[in-house]
Amino acid sequence: MQVMAEALVSPVRRKILAYLSAGPLSAGEIAARFDISKPSLSAHLSILSAAGLIVGARRGNRIDYSLVEDSLVNMLGALVQEVCPVAGPLRREARRKATRRTPPGEE
């Protein structure tokens, strides 16, 4: 539980979870939403993965990340996001960008 708590300390990691709540995203799609270096983003994704909050699935030359749905933290996060004034806009943005997502192989 402490690993999960430490993973949630970072605002960037909480925002990543909010974006992923709308559906899977590639590392590049996540990076496009932040003004941080790729190594820094990779570190954030590794921490979330080690905490059991996200999982990555290789799709050709990219990795798509998604929430671990049965994680208690993610279930509670989804509940809180319904009333959180910050998470709502992040989820709407993620859904909007997901509809404009480039199909695999056309990158």
TrEMBL record:
Alphabetical list of SMART domains matching this protein: HTH_ARSR
InterPro entries per the UniProt record, alphabetical: ArsR-like_HTH, HTH_ArsR_DNA-bd_dom, Metal_resp_trans_reg, WH-like_DNA-bd_sf, WH_DNA-bd_sf
Record-annotated HTH arsR-type domain positions: 1-87
Listed CDD domains: HTH_ARSR
Keywords, sorted A to Z: DNA-binding, Transcription, Transcription regulation
Cited Pfam families: HTH_20 (PF12840)
GO molecular function annotations of the record: DNA binding; DNA-binding transcription factor activity
PANTHER family with a match to the protein in the record: ARSENICAL RESISTANCE OPERON REPRESSOR ARSR-RELATED
Protein's name in the database: ArsR family transcriptional regulator
Organism: Methylobacterium tarhaniae
